[in-house]
């Protein structure tokens, strides 16, 4: 998939000796930037290292984000970077390839190596699409995932759901709120149980064979099946969410099962089982929309700040005690 890359900023930490920061944030999407803003305002030194592939970069507009409804997603991130930079947050473009434990914190490895006391992993998730010719090129415009994000714009229009698992039942029944003209492609093959298919029929939801190819443009999408061609305005797809969590698994962070899949386990503050490593946004919460990622970033930032503060208080007390000895 290709998409525009957000405007980038100055690299950080090049040269032989890695620079040190209080916090290193891996991933500069909604969650990472929100954490960066709060930590910058708390006068912490912060670096955000970001590879520039936010999940919603394929979408021209973003919805349901109070105060930003209809704004391009990349514009929100550009604003966020500018706001955070105003509080001294530094940015580097590139991929963090590993997080290693070192004395006093962590070494972030990759194009920009930095030493940090705390790590926030805000690397998001990847939407794995079913292998249907033509679908990838439509992702974010004619083919989308979330009725809350994109349903209003196509209310009362003919819509389709590409079923990929029994969970697609939820997407179809939800979408029925926005239109009476709804077809679910591949419902039987995706394993949606008979009782649920009856509920589809009772709510006027049609069932069709699996899509073999999709083509067309926004507002005029053609869906080919073994039994012929269908026309819909837009497709909703049960993409499989895969968290971008390699850094966390290499660190040995515990995971947990959720109805949408396995994710890193975190406590109420967003901290993983590895002390000093936080995970926030879609990497830890597969269902998080932009406002949830923003809120989680703020919450995690305040908790990290407290953890640093407690460390600083303990250090002050220890140095006082050693003076008395
Ligand atoms: C097509 C589409 C449309 C959507 N529309 C809406 C909408 O209208 N409203 C809404 O609320 N939500 C919408 N969403 C959901 C939204 O995309 C997510 O809620 C949001 O992106 C989550 O933010 P995040 O910060 O967790 O992850 P992301 O935004 O995905 O950011 C993760 C960042 O981490 C970077 N990264 C990953 N690995 C590394 C690494 N190793 N080193 C450095 N950087 C790394 C990535 O490049 C990326 O920039 C939509 C999603 C999709 C797919």
TrEMBL record:
Residues 1-20 are annotated as: Disordered. InterPro entries: FAD/NAD-bd_sf (IPR036188), FAD/NAD-binding_dom (IPR023753), Ferredoxin-NADP_redctase_2 (IPR050097). SUPFAM superfamilies: FAD/NAD(P)-binding domain (SSF51905). It catalyses: [thioredoxin]-dithiol + NADP(+) = [thioredoxin]-disulfide + NADPH + H(+). Residues 1-17 have a biased composition (Polar residues). PANTHER family: THIOREDOXIN REDUCTASE 1-RELATED-RELATED. This is NAD(P)/FAD-dependent oxidoreductase.
């Amino acid at each position: 998939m290709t998409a525009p890359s957000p405007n980038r900023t100055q690299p950080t930490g090049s040269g032989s000796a890695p620079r040190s920061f209080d916090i290193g944030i891996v991933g500069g999407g909604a969650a990472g930037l929100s954490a960066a803003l709060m930590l910058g305002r708390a006068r912490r030194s912060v670096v955000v290292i970001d590879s520039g592939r936010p999940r919603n970069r394929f979408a021209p507009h973003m919805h349901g984000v109070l105060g930003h409804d209809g704004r391009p997603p990349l514009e929100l991130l550009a604003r966020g970077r500018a706001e955070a930079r105003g509080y001294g947050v530094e940015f580097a473009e590139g991929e963090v390839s590993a997080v290693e434990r070192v004395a006093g914190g962590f070494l972030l490895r990759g194009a920009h190596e930095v030493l940090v006391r705390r790590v926030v992993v805000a690397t998001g998730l990847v939407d794995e699409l079913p292998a249907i010719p033509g679908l990838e090129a439509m992702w974010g415009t004619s083919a989308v995932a979330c009725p809350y994000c994109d349903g209003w714009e196509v209310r009362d229009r003919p819509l389709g759901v590409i079923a990929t698992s029994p969970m697609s039942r939820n997407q179809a029944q939800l979408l029925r709120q926005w239109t009476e003209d709804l077809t679910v492609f591949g419902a039987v093959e995706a394993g949606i149980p008979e009782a649920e298919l009856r509920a589809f029929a009772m709510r006027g939801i049609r069932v069709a064979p699996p899509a073999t190819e999709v083509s067309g443009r926004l507002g005029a999408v053609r869906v080919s099946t073994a039994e012929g061609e269908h026309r819909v305005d837009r497709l909703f797809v049960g993409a499989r969410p895969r968290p971008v969590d390699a850094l966390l698994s290499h660190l040995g962070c515990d995971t947990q099962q959720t109805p949408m899949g396995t994710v890193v386990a975190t406590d109420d503050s967003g901290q993983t089982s590895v002390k000093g490593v936080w995970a926030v946004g879609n990497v830890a919460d597969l269902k998080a929309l932009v406002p949830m990622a923003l809120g989680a970033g703020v919450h995690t930032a305040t908790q990290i700040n407290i953890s640093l503060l407690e460390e600083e208080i303990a250090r002050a007390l220890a140095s006082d005690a050693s003076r008395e000895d």
